[in-house]
Automatic annotation (TrEMBL):
Pathway: Aromatic compound metabolism; phenylacetate degradation. Residues 365-458 form the AMP-dependent ligase C-terminal domain. Keywords: Ligase, Nucleotide-binding. The keyword Kinase does not apply. InterPro entries: Adenylate-forming_Reductase, AMP-bd_C_sf, AMP-dep_Lig_C, AMP-dep_synth/lig_dom, ANL_N_sf, PA_CoA_ligase. PANTHER family: PHENYLACETATE-COENZYME A LIGASE (PTHR43439). This is Phenylacetate-coenzyme A ligase. It catalyses: 2-phenylacetate + ATP + CoA = phenylacetyl-CoA + AMP + diphosphate. The keyword Nucleotide-binding applies. Belongs to the phenylacetyl-CoA ligase family. Residues 106-317 form the AMP-dependent synthetase/ligase domain. It comes from the Bacteria.
Length: 459
């Protein structure tokens, strides 16, 4: 394995690059811990100016220091000086996981290796993992953004925070960890799994907030009940949950189960990790994208056209302050829409992610996402949020079986009726016939992080 050579144009002795200089020049003075940053409160006009300055520096930084960007832009006949307005970004080609994989392991880095302080990587269930690098400055900004999300979601300096996102190459654990510390709160670095231990620590350490995936929090609720404890009696008041798609119905389920407020947090490793967007405690109206660091676009995934505000499509991100791994027009495959800012008017919000385009089930010509099933199932009495979708092809015809657990308190007979109702509503609302198989409580696999919902056995 060979390390990427230090780019010629980069000062290998650690002198700040032009992007770092642009960030420093546009950065406001720090505010006291636990209070909003100045950039959080700026209006849209000022935001556009800030974005343009940082965007110009990012594109130049990528072009001059990463050969993959230089080759891509040369092949498309665009150069950094073609970006004079924010709209000019549309002239630049998209990037995706393949672009990063082709640069495996470190060729996408725009700084010499001696300035890369940390590496993370995506799980890479198929093919090579995508490798992400961070400079000292990147790590510091990440911690600041995560702490901004925590504060926005109601967590305060001095709180005890139970961190059940997985530690390791996954960005969840360490990303959250340093965010909690930056906020001036106390982090319990529990990581994922070991449910019994989690329950003991939550009971004994009395955290005010918990950080984990929504499905893992449900698994914890089961764990509490199994231990003869009522999850509503814990010290928890806030959950900052993300890393997988979840619905409003799931939010309601979780809030009821623990008697807490559950807020969303969004991010992806390629773009930074968790903390790209976070949700207001007061409004719970979708995650606010921290646009002083990330420029979002929504495109039609088929035509790649940029869509008008409010339209549903694929989320695309450009980083504005990432030194080690600048990311320009990265196709996330996440499907959502952009909404105007509310609590932070200069920063737009994102709607809930309905799913990933690569997680879309095509069933006899109908497109559907697991979130649609979640949304329907949780409105039917007697059915639990624990379900799996099994896809098979008997007699060359696609079939989807929804395996779903009945709730403990629901009788077998009532659960069968509820199952029929679920099939009926899926047919009406999604347009697909399916088989619903009601399972006994505690029989389907529980989450230990990101839950796998789809079992495609068609091939
Ligand atoms: O899941 C980062 C993260 C950790 C986010 C902890 C939030 C909390 P990846 O493993 O690279 O990074 O996966 C990124 O997860 O493209 C979405 O498809 C999905 N995802 C992340 N957050 C949310 C969310 C982390 N709040 C991929 N809602 C993304 C829906 C989410 N999907």
């Amino acid at each position: 394995m060979s390390l990427a050579p230090a780019p010629d144009s980069f000062a290998a002795d650690g002198a700040p690059n032009e992007l770092a200089a642009a960030i420093a020049e546009t950065e406001a003075d720090p505010t006291p811990v636990g209070t909003p940053d100045a950039a959080e409160l700026i209006g849209r006009e000022e935001m556009d100016q800030l974005q343009l300055t940082r965007l110009k520096a990012t594109i130049k930084h990528a072009y001059e220091n990463v050969s993959a960007y230089r080759e891509l832009y040369d092949a498309h006949g665009v150069k950094p000086s073609d970006l004079q307005t924010l709209e000019d970004l549309a002239k630049f080609p998209f990037t995706d996981k393949e672009f990063l994989r082709a640069a495996y392991p470190f060729k996408s880095f725009a700084v010499p290796m001696n300035q890369v302080r940390r590496i993370h990587a995506s799980s890479g269930t198929t093919g090579l993992p995508t490798v992400v690098g961070y400079t000292d400055g990147d790590i510091d900004r990440w911690a600041t953004l995560f702490s901004r999300c925590l504060r926005f979601s109601g967590v305060a300096p001095g709180d005890i925070v139970h961190n059940a996102y997985g530690y390791g190459l996954f960005t969840g654990g360490l990303g959250a960890h340093y965010g909690v510390e930056k906020l001036g709160a106390t982090v319990i670095p529990m990581s994922g799994g070991q449910t019994e231990k989690q329950i003991q620590l939550i009971t004994d350490f009395k955290p005010r907030a918990i950080l984990c995936t929504p499905t893992y929090l449900l698994a914890l609720a089961d764990g509490f009940r199994k231990a003869g404890l009522d999850p509503r009696d814990t010290s928890l008041e806030i959950g900052v949950l993300g890393a997988e798609p979840w619905t409003e119905e799931m939010r309601h389920e979780i809030e009821q189960a623990f008697n807490i407020k559950a807020c969303d947090i969004y991010g992806l490793s390629e773009v930074m990790g968790p903390g790209v967007a976070g949700e207001s405690f007061d409004r719970q109206d979708g995650s606010t994208i921290w646009e002083d660091h990330f420029r979002p676009e929504i495109i039609d995934p088929m035509t790649e056209d940029v869509l008008e505000p409010g339209h549903h499509g694929e989320l695309v991100f450009t980083t504005l302050t990432r030194e080690a791994l600048p990311i320009i027009r990265y196709r996330t495959h996440d499907l959502t829409r952009l909404l105007p800012g509310t609590d932070r008017p200069g920063h737009r919000r994102m709607g809930r992610i309905s799913g990933r385009s690569d997680d879309m089930i095509i069933l006899r010509g109908v497109n559907l996402f697991p979130t649609q099933i979640e949304e329907i199932a949780l409105t039917i009495e007697g059915l639990s949020p624990h379900f799996q979708l099994e896809l098979t092809r008997p007699d060359h015809m696609d079939q989807m079986t929804v395996h779903i657990e009945r709730r403990e308190e629901c009788s077998l007979q009532d659960a069968e009726t509820a199952g029929k109702e679920l099939a009926r509503q899926i047919k009406i609302k999604v347009g697909s016939s399916c088989v619903v198989s009601v399972a006994e409580p505690e029989t389907l696999a529980r989450s230990s992080g990101k839950l796998r919902r789809i079992y495609d056995k068609r091939r």
